[in-house]
Amino acid sequence: MASGLAIPPDIARLLLQRGIAGEDSARAFLGPTFAQLPPPRSLLGMNQGVAVIEQALSQKMPVTVYGDYDVDGITATALLVRFLRLLGLAVTPYQPDRLTEGYGLNQQAIRKLHARAMKQHGVAGVLVTVDCGITSIAEVTLARELGFLVVITDHHLPLPHLPPADALINPLQPGCPFPDKNLAGVGVAFYYCMGLRSHLVEQGFWPETKKIPNLKTFLDLVALGTIADVVSLTGVNRVFVRAGLEVINQKKGDAALGPGLNALFELANIGARGITVEDISFRISPRINAAGRVGSPETAIDLLLTEDPEQARSLARTLENTNQQRREIEAQVHEQALALAGEEVRQGRRGLVLWGQGWHPGVIGITAARLAEQFWRPCILFAVDGDLAKGSARSVPDVDLHQLLCACNQEHLVRFGGHAGAAGVQINTQHLEIFKKDFERQISIQVNPELLVPRLWIDAHLNFQELFVESFLSNYIKLFPFGRGNPEPVFVVKGCRLTDLQVVGPGQDHLRFVVRADNMSRQGIAFGFSDMAATLREKEVDLAFRLRLNEFRGRKRWELIAQDMVIETR
Question: Which pTM value belongs to this model?
Answer without folding.
Answer: 0.90
